[in-house]
TrEMBL record, chain A:
Species whose genome carries this gene: Jeotgalibacillus proteolyticus
GO MF annotation terms: isomerase activity
Superkingdom to which the source organism belongs: Bacteria
Record family assignment: Belongs to the enoyl-CoA hydratase/isomerase family.
Protein name per the record: 2-(1,2-epoxy-1,2-dihydrophenyl)acetyl-CoA isomerase
Pfam families to which the protein is assigned, alphabetical: ECH_1
UniProt keyword annotations, A-Z: Isomerase
From TrEMBL, chain B:
PANTHER family xref list: ENOYL-COA HYDRATASE, MITOCHONDRIAL (PTHR11941:SF54), ENOYL-COA HYDRATASE-RELATED (PTHR11941)
Any Gene Ontology biological process: fatty acid beta-oxidation
Enzyme class: lyase
Organism: Jeotgalibacillus proteolyticus
EC number: 4.2.1.17
SUPFAM superfamilies tied to this protein: ClpP/crotonase
The keyword Iron-sulfur is assigned to this record: no
Family: Belongs to the enoyl-CoA hydratase/isomerase family.
Entry-linked InterPro entries: ClpP/crotonase-like_dom_sf, Enoyl-CoA_hyd/isom_CS, Enoyl-CoA_hydra/iso, Enoyl-CoA_hydra_C
Gene Ontology MF: a single term: enoyl-CoA hydratase activity
Official protein name in the record: Enoyl-CoA hydratase
Any Pfam family hit: ECH_1
Length: 257, 259
């Protein structure tokens, strides 16, 4: 690790910084490899209770590095071998994952942000469904997440017209958790991550899982899964701590397990 | 129960016997000693009149990630023939009590073969199954090609065995290998719930049903039907059959004695 991304853990937060600044953090094979390693490490590390993905330099990510796109490229295989593992890892993660979109998020850079649990947008960030402009379809889960976030009709418009979306527009569409000004960026991203890192992390993971099941399961199966999830939450330290804190009229001190 | 086991843990919870594979530092990879101990523990629980159901699980991050490669790597065919190490697996076939497998993490190679010896399998939803033997230039040797094929059919078994690919608990559920995939945290708890449910049933019925189901897999239909019928008749010599039918007529809960 360390060539295409920077990765560090501090104060229960894992920071993944896309670091191909001269290429606007566009994806290549090594960046995907390192991201996947970092995400897996953060998942295993018991200290980590929140993961932040952001970009160094001007851009969040400009998407796939077009330098690697040659005539004989098997686009399907690129998705399958490089993008899919990252998107699945994010979806299976039981920890909150924030994308702190510091600048332009285009193409699969936007897809990455959509796959995260929360999106913090820099006031000057731009979101672009760039795929249509090169005759491709939004990939790496883009069309899976987009209609769930903003509805079918809006997802269609964004995917088909590929217009630049400002952070304000993104906020109105429901794509952003928060828009943050230049001055406040570092502090607010940090404090948002810290808030997540203090949650009962076990319960967070179960909520994330149940929410995604709500799109996939019929009600009876969903309710069965819910009873499993609540059983697991009910066994957690943080549940006991929460109940005791409530009775003692103090703030709970969650440990994440 | 013998306390001389070094690779497994055994314990009982009322009338349920539990066997835990206990070499977590090597993800419970099976070696000769471990398989021998598992089979001995199964046999001891099978003979124990107080035990009705057996639960098999793995300690640590995996159920069992395969077999101990070092143990066989440098053996030749004749040594393996004379060692005859897989014959111990045949004794699992003779266990009469229901075996519930609660698997999680890696369920690979020999570990998968062991899981396939269970009568009912519950899996954690993040478990990974597979027969990677083909990629080592060998093949499953403890029943993998036979049990998997009988369980899921030739076509699906071929694909999984020839490719050696790993597959998810979800796929295992769809293929009918596991009866349920539940969260990792509660897979043992769910297996114990099921075990307690079965332990309340008349044990002779469990025994005859298990035997008959195995016959269905191995015998032609006609032979299987004859075997089933004999077992059906046999149960009419049990006290539990009299009690069960009487209780049903009297609209009360039966009080089974296991006799």
């Amino acid at each position: 690790m360390g060539e295409a991304i920077q990765y560090e853990c501090s104060n229960n937060i894992a920071w993944i910084r896309l670091n191909r600044t001269d290429k606007l953090n566009s994806f290549n094979e090594i960046m995907h490899k390192e991201m996947l390693l970092a995400l897996k490490d953060a998942e295993r590390n018991q200290e980590v209770r929140c993961i932040v993905i952001t970009g160094n330099g001007r851009a969040f990510s400009a998407g796939e590095d077009l330098e690697g796109v040659t005539d004989d490229l098997d686009h399907g295989e690129v998705i399958r071998s490089r993008y899919t593992p990252v998107i699945l890892q994010i979806s299976r993660s039981k920890k909150p994952i924030v994308s702190a979109v510091n600048g332009v998020a285009a193409g699969s850079g936007l897809s990455l942000a959509l796959a995260c649990d929360f999106r913090l947008l820099h006031e000057k960030a731009k979101l672009v469904q760039a795929f249509i402009h090169v005759g491709l379809i939004p990939d790496s889960g883009n069309l899976f997440y987009l209609p769930k976030l903003i509805g079918h009709a809006k997802a269609m418009e964004l995917a088909v017209f590929g217009e630049k979306i400002s952070s304000q527009q993104a906020m109105e569409l429901g794509l952003a958790t928060k828009v943050i000004t230049e001055d406040a960026w570092d502090n607010e991203v940090q404090s948002f991550a810290l808030t997540l890192a203090c949650l009962p992390t076990k319960a967070f993971g179960l909520i994330k899982e149940q929410l995604s099941r709500s799109w996939e399961m019929p009600l009876d199966e969903f309710l069965e899964a819910e009873s499993y999830s609540q059983r697991i939450a009910g066994l957690s330290y943080d549940h006991k701590e929460g109940v005791i804190a409530f009775k003692e009229k103090r703030k709970p001190d969650f440990q994440g397990n | 129960m013998s306390s001389s086991f070094s690779t497994i843990l055994t314990e009982t919870s009322e009338d349920i016997g539990m066997i835990s594979l206990n070499r977590p530092e090597v993800l419970n990879t099976l070696n000769i000693r471990m398989v021998e101990e598992i089979v001995q523990a199964l046999e001891q629980f099978d003979q124990d009149p107080f035990i009705k159901v057996i639960v098999l699980k793995g300690q640590g991050r995996a159920f069992a990630a395969g077999a101990d490669i070092d143990e066989m790597m440098n053996k030749n065919s004749i040594e393996l023939e004379l060692l005859n190490q897989f014959t111990v697996w045949d004794r699992i076939t003779w266990i009469k009590k229901p075996i519930i497998g609660a698997v999680h993490g890696y369920v690979l190679g020999g570990g998968f073969e062991l899981a396939l010896c269970c009568d009912i399998l519950l899996s954690s939803d993040d478990a990974e199954f597979g027969f990677p033997e083909v990629s080592l230039g060998i093949m499953p040797g403890a029943g993998g090609t036979q049990r998997l094929t009988k369980l899921i059919g030739r076509s699906n078994a071929m694909k999984l065995l020839l490719s050696g690919e790993r597959f998810s608990a979800k796929t295992a559920k769809e293929l009918g290998i596991v009866s349920a995939a539940v969260p990792n945290e509660i897979v043992v708890e769910e297996a114990m719930k099921l075990a307690r449910l079965l332990a309340q049933k008349p044990s002779l019925s469990l025994r005859m049903i298990k035997e008959s189901v195995h016959k269905a897999v191995d015998l032609p239909l006609f032979e299987g039907m004859q075997a089933e019928r004999k077992n059906f008749y046999l149960l009419f010599s049990s006290e539990d059959q009299k009690e069960g039918m009487r209780a049903f007529k009297e609209k009360r809960a039966p009080d089974f004695k296991g006799k």
